[in-house]
């Protein structure tokens, strides 16, 4: 009998069939994982900007604001002392949102202002969204009146939850 070093055509086709099955099974869940990670990143950046504004307001003993860089929050935001001046060339902090993410301020949030005590008013809410395949992934970020920022998966409710931010990030993508 003759010995062959290599694959037969049947073995090669079976390997390709197994590879295609594994790929079609793994890719959708991997896309969802990436979408949730992008949401987590933008949510954390907004939380960090809010924390910076709050701590600067307390440190400076004056109002500090988080403002959208353009007409909407999806373009990004900055941390500024003077809200009337808008985002200047030298903000205390700034962030540009990736194109695949949408950030919507509920109730026409034009700024988040922290007073010298580190408190904000009216519980501003931000819905951070992205799409993956046929799913919409969203996270809601609430700013409590005491200045704490709380993130929760899903769409925003009509009021601040008043609970800790110990939410699981799974479930941010709904079918």
How would you characterize the overall build of this protein?
The chain is α+β, with helices and mostly antiparallel strands and 175 residues long. The protein has one domain (9-174): minor pseudopilin epsh fold. The chain is built from 1 helix and 9 strands, in the order αβββββββββ. The protein has one helix at 9-60, and strands spanning 64-68, 77-80, 93-95, 102-105, 112-114, 125-132, 135-143, 149-153, 173-174. The strands form 2 sheets. Strands 4, 6, 7, 8 and 9 form a 5-stranded antiparallel sheet that branches. It has a 4-stranded antiparallel sheet with strand order 3-2-1-5, covered by helices on one side. Mean pLDDT is 83; it is low at 163-169.
Short description:
This protein is an alpha+beta fold and 175 residues long.
Give the arrangement of secondary structure elements.
Blueprint: H1 9-60, E1 64-68, E2 77-80, E3 93-95, E4 102-105, E5 112-114, E6 125-132, E7 135-143, E8 149-153, E9 173-174
Antiparallel strand pairs: 1-2, 1-5, 2-3, 4-6, 6-7, 7-8, 7-9
CATH architecture: 3-Layer(bab) Sandwich
CATH fold topology: minor pseudopilin epsh fold
Mean pLDDT: 83
What Rg do the Cα atoms give? 23 Å
**What is the string of SSEs from the N terminus onward?**
HEEEEEEEEE
- Residue stretches low in confidence (pLDDT < 50, at least 5 long) are 163-169
Helix content: 25-40%
Beta-strand level of the residues, as a percent range? Answer: 15-25%
Number-wise, the strands total 9
Key structural traits:
30% helix; minor pseudopilin epsh fold; 9 strands; 1 helix; 175 residues; single chain
